[in-house]
Amino acid sequence: MFEKLCLEGFQSGLSWRTILAKRENFRAAFHHFDFHRVAQFTEEDVTRLLQDAGIVRHRGKIEAVINNAQRAIDMVEQEGSLARFFWRFEPQPCGPQVVATTAESTAISKELKKRGWKFVGPTTVYAFMQAMGLVNDHSEGCAIRQEVEQARAKFTRP
């Protein structure tokens, strides 16, 4: 979940194709998004990452990942897991939507920001919710909609 939220933050303002093409580079640069390791990054690491052409070199986004790693540690201590926190906001089943935010993504964003997270606006959070299966807003008739519903039905919420 931490990796996905970080990648959503890096994607903000860019094409997903760009992020997906660089995904393995991001994983290497951020120690497979092990937030315990990333939380220990220093200014030297920021400088190193700003020189890494394999990732998106945006100081604010890089520093946000490090900050969010520190916040993730706090969240796990408080909530038990990242999954337990995020699934608390699972909306009621919905039909197809063409939206960039929802009340739930706005609520998550506000709560994360209150806890000190960065680059977690409501649009970024909604994309994260879609990718993690918290919502299934695929249109009726979409080949994936039923597959996602079946996976969601089998999933045990934390």
TrEMBL record:
InterPro entries: Adenine_glyco (IPR005019), DNA-3mA_glycosylase (IPR052891), DNA_glycosylase (IPR011257)
Highest rank taxon of the organism: Bacteria
A Gene Ontology BP annotation from the UniProt entry: base-excision repair
Binding positions (Zn(2+)): H138, C142
Keywords: Metal-binding, Zinc
GO molecular function: DNA-3-methyladenine glycosylase activity; metal ion binding
Gene3D superfamilies: Hypothetical protein, domain 2
Protein name, UniProt field: Putative 3-methyladenine DNA glycosylase
Species the sequence originates in: Magnetofaba australis IT-1
